[in-house]
Design goal:
This protein is mostly helical and 351 residues long. It contains 18 helices and no strands.
Length: 351
């Protein structure tokens, strides 16, 4: 499932981090019970300050996944041009030289998305990295920041990467760079057979290529992504990824299908798994559905930290003051990853 895949950066961090020794720094037990909706109104400025302080306090956590999530949150604040963005900029800079490839990858993606040209010299050192996630992200960082860089290594990674996830990451990067000359390369990659890959890995790879092709102007590929919404109960990971992609692409043509999935129940009256429902809710929130993020409030006290973390992400997309009380609760969660997600969500609220 995509329980932790709230965004492509989180997915990348989780994929890279899985190859590293696991480090446990937080209690994964259930969260503090949620406050009632009748709690006193939360002061927005105080909540924002608490969110920023939370990120600062976890920036050097021993768990690389936590550090990666903090870097991403810091990047989100910088991209919005909000007060506090400069205060968190050093976190992004430190991420570029972090010992974890996962953190480096996320930091490089943040540099690119925010076009932080002053960090380009530091980002350039990662172009020669032996880690293909880091190398690809470094090429993106420089390209997006308007700095000249050789993009041809991405072709080799896309066609010859050792793992399907690495190839999918390269496809995603090519889509983000928005270089139309990559259309032919991506179409070639879509025809290539992945040896020793599972059916699920192949499906995810094909969806990532389809997303990149749409970003580069091939609108016919949107049907490939829409079709994946009906992959069925045996491939719910593809359903969740397709929903994520459709939300990112702003595909309003998929709105009704996503709404149907958000309320779907099987013959026994069982809804879709929590992570899939939250992925669908996130997509609808990105498409402007006003109440989509409210679905996440059902999962504030979920037993799994990954689900509470995903719920926080979705609530951040809603930007409603009514969600602030739930995020305030998650900001005090026993799990560090949930606290980071809540802080990130709070800082996304419109001010």
């Amino acid at each position: 499932m995509l329980a932790c895949s709230n965004s492509i950066l989180v997915a990348i961090a989780a994929s890279v981090a899985c190859a590293q020794p696991a480090v446990t720094t937080s209690d994964a037990s259930a969260p503090t019970p949620a406050k009632s909706a009748s709690s006193a109104p939360i002061q927005a400025s105080l909540l924002r300050e608490e969110a920023i302080s939370t990120l600062e306090s976890l920036a050097n956590d021993s768990n690389p996944e936590i550090r990666a999530n903090v870097v991403e949150a810091a990047g989100g604040l910088s991209s919005a041009g909000n007060s506090g963005g400069g205060r968190l900029r050093p976190i992004i800079e430190r991420g570029l030289t972090d010992p974890s490839a996962a953190v480096q990858t996320v930091a490089l993606m943040v540099v690119g998305r925010n076009k932080i040209k002053e960090l380009a010299p530091l980002a350039r050192t990662s172009v020669s990295s032996d880690n293909m996630y880091v190398k690809s992200a470094a090429i993106f960082a420089l390209s997006a920041a308007g700095v000249e860089v050789d993009q041809t290594p991405l072709a080799n990674i896309l066609l010859n990467g050792e793992k399907p996830q690495i190839r999918a990451h390269a496809a995603f990067i090519l889509g983000e760079i928005r270089n139309p000359s990559a259309l032919g390369l991506l179409r070639q990659a879509a025809r290539e057979k992945l040896i020793m890959a599972s059916e699920s890995q192949v499906k995810s790879y094909q969806l990532q290529i389809a997303e990149a092709l749409v970003k580069l102007g091939d609108q016919s590929q949107i049907d490939t992504v829409r079709a994946a919404l009906y992959s069925g109960p045996d491939d719910l990971e593809a359903v969740a990824l397709a929903a994520q992609i459709l939300g990112t692409l702003g595909d309003t043509g998929a709105r009704n299908n996503l709404i149907n999935l958000s309320v779907y129940k099987d013959r026994a009256g069982t809804p879709l798994p929590a992570d899939v429902r939250l992925a669908v809710a996130a997509a609808l929130a990105k498409l402007g559905e006003p109440d989509a993020a409210m679905i996440a409030t059902e999962f504030v006290t979920h037993a799994e930290p990954a689900i509470r973390k995903q719920a926080a992400y979705v609530m951040g997309l809603g930007g409603k003051n009514a969600l602030a009380v739930h995020l305030s609760t998650l900001l005090k969660d026993q799990d560090a990853g949930v606290r980071v997600a809540a802080a990130d969500a709070i800082l996304k609220f419109k001010r």
